[in-house]
What does this fold into?
Amino acid sequence: MFKSEGVSIPAIQKSLIDLNLEIPSNEKITSLFGDKMEEICKSLAPGSSLETRKNLTEKIRSYESLLIPEKAKLYDGVKKTLNELISSGYTLALCSNGYEDYLYLILKTLGISGLFKYIKGKHPIKNKGKVIKDILIGSDISFAIVVGDRFHDINAARENNLPSIGVTYGYGGNEALKADFIANRPEEILGQVNRCYIFARIEKEIFNSLIKGPIIIGVDGMDPSGKKEFSNLLSKYLESRGYKTALIHLDDFHNPEKNRYKGKDEIESYINKSFNLELLIEEILNPLKKGESIHKELNLFDLESNEFRKNYCIDKKTIVILEGSLLYREPINESFDYRIYLDIDFKEMVKRGKESGEFFEKKCTPIQKRYIKNHLPKGKSNIVIDNTDFDRPIVKKFTP
It folds into this structure.
């Protein structure tokens, strides 16, 4: 949230000058942001005495308190994002390795202290993961998402089996890329949080099924509705919560083109013959439904690479996510334990598919209209999500 360089760099530089210590580069200083002050001072004054580091800590804190009212700034878009999160019904907590008096002064200066229900600063013994655990235990919050830019934040999320959102505009550099989800701008945080909230609802619904045995989740929708990205993110979310996942793409099971449009009714032929459902059911879905583990290599066919071989290693405790179009119809529909449908309108479908020329308008539109009319995929789905605005997915239907 906070652009620390405007306050912390001059505060550190002034403190080092006062103590006749060497001043490192600005890049070196910013690379330390997010660490506990003790670690920062060890790096700033390597080999120095404990008393020197204590003096350095006190001076930095003193200079920061003087500079905050004049220099404190948020990243562009942060305040708007915080207010949008609040208006969307989310509870905000601030957990930092900085001292609490430092945090409160920043929040008061920037006029955002009232947005946070919980504010936790540096703990003398506990790391950030344990502090977050304390917040969860001491509140009515059963689920949380950790947003940060340093490895401390990502590790804290993993310690608590929580999803993490890494912000690349902060001071963590490549550390942020190790998070489960990525936000390159503050404005992208809301979309990732919204998706995590939807994923949490899905997780709650499938958990009881997991206890009974293997579970297969379907992610259906029109061709450019965002199924692949949604499925990738759902897989990451579930793994952050401690589950094993396996992602299967229906496009890997295409039939050759000569089979896809074979017959008098090209639309019906495409719906029924575009994919090798028999291979998918026989080799993967049926064994899973019987509680068997899978360790095999299959000869497959897709539109880009034609024939290829792919390994599948799926044990009985793995959540399988199968994404693709035209899923909720026989003979494959009965394989799913939970059905997700990503909804966009036909105008949006053509708009997203414009790079493919007239294919989406001339081919995909009539195919999808026939499929929706005859097979009612939205009605069969446990959850229907309006994915028109990727940053603001909206649940249109939810059937536990």
